[in-house]
Known about the structure:
Elements: H1 4-21, E1 30-34, H2 40-48, E2 53-56, H3 59-68, E3 75-78, H4 87-93, E4 96-100, H5 103-112, E5 120-125, H6 139-150, E6 155-161, H7 166-171, H8 175-189, E7 196-198, H9 205-210, E8 215-218, H10 220-223
Parallel strand pairs: 1-2, 1-8, 2-3, 3-4, 4-5, 5-6, 6-7
Amino acid sequence: MATIPHKLNLLRERIDAACNAVGRPENAVELLAVSKTFDADAVRQAHAAGQRAFGENYLQEALDKQAQLAGLDLEWHFIGPIQSNKTRGIAENFHWVHGIERLKIARRLSEQRPEELAPLNVCVQVNVSGEASKSGCAPAEALALCVAVAQLPRLRLRGLMAIPAPSAAAEDPRLPFRVLRELFESLRRAGLEVDTISAGMSDDLEAAIAEGSTLVRVGSGLFGKRTP
Length: 228
Ligand SMILES: *Cc1c(COP(=O)(O)O)cnc(C)c1O
């Protein structure tokens, strides 16, 4: 059975190869290890192999893991949907939040971010596949939402995030990521100092990297199959 350090190496090679294939430098893409449903020991193993950034979807599960791993130098990213009653716990215990889709949630996170911590890094999530059931703001609303989020004092807008629908990937796997990159470029043209495109998971990271992703979020490709 492949160990976590071994799979981490393979994954880094896969990311490097995807960068090389499109002429991007190998350090252009950061790996976020998605540890949701996996235990603290899996995180400890990945950290021992050089991984520092971890993604979690469920607040209570993340807090339990953080408590068990206190003392390790880890960077925690909240990547799940955000309910209003969870914003305080997220604002107090994470370095990044990827799923901002409403200004109301962003305002709460900013108000609840403790003074003694650095501003919370955030990405606005965009629904690039146009499905009513998927989360994220509409592409046409992304710029206005980003401008508003960038003004919140305790947040630092870093860029955009998306989770394209697999069905969209079947036609042209790069298309949804291209939509995301074009939006990102429009933010830059509008004067926003963004540096992050959070896109690409275990099954589609090559397509995402080809379209400029700067951060891929990989769970099953590193820790194994999740049992839901
Ligand atoms: C679970 C999850 C991932 C990781 O997905 P894998 O297919 O296991 O790599 C990435 N991003 C988000 C937002 C997730 O919820």
